[in-house]
Amino acid sequence: MRNIILVGFMGTGKTTIATRLANRLKMNYVSTDDLIEKKEKRTINEIFTKDGEERFRDIESEVVREVSGMENVVIDAGGGVVLREENMANFKSNGIVICLTADEEVVMERTKKYKHRPLLNVEDPKQRIRTLLAKRAPFYAKADHIIDTGKLTVKQVVEEIVKISEAKR
């Protein structure tokens, strides 16, 4: 089966959906963020703080190249992975890219308790979410499919992706 790659803003449910989907389809689960942390032996927050976002994006692109060559995986991709065209091209070379979306209120509610989100560690996280969503919208629009997770259950989203993946076989 072709890989299934979940992209989208933080708080849209990528990790939860990806793990359930992998289990449902008996595929392997891979998180680009987990692989980055393992490769660098430090957290994403530490990479952002010490080396900056550009260096993080370079490491992320290396990991994307690696995981795009894998077979039969559900890939949980970091929220900003879409900012580089090469990442989307690599993902699409061996998989279906599905963007999970949610409006800023849903994202704010889902992310407010997490302190490990370097891009939201600012004075006005809601404004930051609004700004980043607007900036990334054209990049997320390049996904093969888009699913709004704001009003759906995890099970409903998983079933929608299963239908999409079965139609692409």
- Class inferred from helices and paired strands: alpha/beta
SSE run: EHEHHHEHEHHEH
The counted number of beta strands is 5
Query: CATH topology, what is it called?
Result: Rossmann fold
CATH class: Alpha Beta
Total separate domains: 1
Assembly type of the shown chains? single chain
Distance between the termini: 7 Å
CATH architecture: 3-Layer(aba) Sandwich
Which strand order does the major sheet show? 2-3-1-4-5
Task: Name the features.
169 residues; globular; five-stranded parallel beta sheet; 54% helix; 8 helices; Rossmann fold; single chain; 5 strands; alpha/beta
General description of the model:
With about 170 residues, this protein is an alpha/beta fold. It has helices spanning about 15-25, 30-40, 45-50, 55-70, 85-90, 105-110, 125-140, 155-165, and strands at about 5-10, 30, 75, 95-100, 145-150. It has a 5-stranded parallel beta sheet with strand order 2-3-1-4-5. It starts with a strand and ends with a helix. The mean pLDDT is about 90.
